[in-house]
Amino acid sequence: MKLGRKIAALLCFSFAFASTQVLADTDEMRVVGSWNSLTLFKNFEKPFWTETVPQELGIKTSMTSLGQVKLKGPAVVRQMGMGVFDVVHTVADYIVSDSPDLAGLDLPGVTTDIATAKKTVEAYRPVLAEYLARDFDVKLLSVVPYPAQVLFSRVPIQGLGDLKGKKIRASGWTTSEFVTALGATGVTMSFSEVPQSLQRGVVDCGITGSLSGYSAGWGEVSKYIYPLPVGGWDYVIGVMSMSTWNKLSKEQQDKLQALIKEKLETPGWAVTEKETQEGIDCLTGKTCPHGDPQKLTEVPVTDEARAQVKEVLINSVLPALAEKVSPETMTTWNETIGKVVGIQSK
After folding, report:
1. Quick check: 311 and 109 in contact, CB under 8 A?
2. Contact 174/128 with Cβ under 8 angstroms?
3. pTM of the predicted model as reported, rounded to 2 decimal places
4. Segment holding 274, helix H or strand E
5. Which fold has domain 27-146+234-276?
6. Can you give the pLDDT at residue 232?
7. Percentage of the chain surpassing pLDDT 70?
8. What residues does CATH 3.40.190.170 cover in the chain?
9. Could you give the CA distance from residue 5 to residue 296 in angstroms, rounded to a whole number?
């Protein structure tokens, strides 16, 4: 064989081998879902990654959850950079310590209805994807809200004024900033640690989704529920390692994104409003499609309370965010979410 033919043959072999390696590397995706006790994981994330992706893309997957990997905060996302996981679903608030710009997605009091919440996410999504790529080297795949983040309390409360002096579990620093402005002390701890902490009196109250709290046993150690969305929506973001994303063909990328929208995001958003009310009903002794109803006292929400939440957002939370991020980030927030809700940071 002539030298030129040998080189050509070697190049063809190398190309074929490299292609095989790409396919082999993406043959099994290691996925971390959100909290496996909650409906988002059970009804959408798990069937999507363990059934839809293998069937539609021919890619094998293995799946675990945040509760099973036991990595707190940004650690689970950071593991992606080391090749431990390919896909992670986690609450955006959990990783803002490593990327403060992400906090703008879900500030307490920005939206109290699901329709407006969706508009804010659509406006912020391009910049959210940019921040995630810059700070974690990941591709944004999905954004799905948990039910509205409401307040559970083991001690008597009649409204926001009674939170002064209380210790309140907050999922992220923006929610902590919010309760601090009300005279409370924000305590950051893992979702799974809250029931025991409420039971032992480590915290007086906790903020999470209504149905999320019911499903995870918060109602069993609380006596009151305050259904004003003081903690936003706790958006769960799905991200893929940029290395894994780049190994997929353009056709695979396009198909994956289309499937995520159809099978995960769109139906996930559709059930959130329903589950917010179902969670409140389950917690307050009404008809409960998810199990036995509990008997928490529902604290009435007044127009004055809604106005106070907005005031705290403008006077405390937004200024606190401005201290942690660049002026450009705040300008971007004003031009996206701020424009949607009619609020501008000073």
Report:
1. no
2. no
3. 0.83
4. helix 266-283
5. D-Maltodextrin-Binding Protein; domain 2 (3.40.190)
6. 83
7. 92
8. 27-146+234-276, 149-232+279-341
9. 79
CA dist., res. 284 & res. 148, Å (int) = 16
Average pLDDT, the chain: 89
Buried b (16+ CB within 10 A) or exposed e, 209-234: bbbbbbbbbbbebbbbbbbbbbbbbb
16 burial type by CB count under 10 A (0-12 exposed, 13-18 middle, 19+ buried): exposed
Can you say how many angstroms the Cα of residue 93 is from the centroid of all Cα atoms in its chain? 7
**H or E segment to which residue 63 belongs:** strand 60-65
Helices (H) and strands (E) in the chain, counts: 17, 11
Q: What is the pLDDT of residue 27?
A: 67
Which single residue is written with the structure tokens 């909650």?
38
State the Cα–Cα distance between residues 83 and 166, nearest whole angstrom: 42
- The CATH T-level fold of domain 149-232+279-341 is D-Maltodextrin-Binding Protein; domain 2 (3.40.190)
Per-residue pLDDT tens over the stretch 258-272: 999 999 999 999 998
DSSP labels for 80-143?
HHTTS-SEEEEEGGGGTTT-GGGGGGG-TTS-SSHHHHHHHHHHHHHHHHHHHHHHH-EEEEEE
Q: pLDDT per residue over 281-293, tens digit each?
A: 999 999 999 999 9
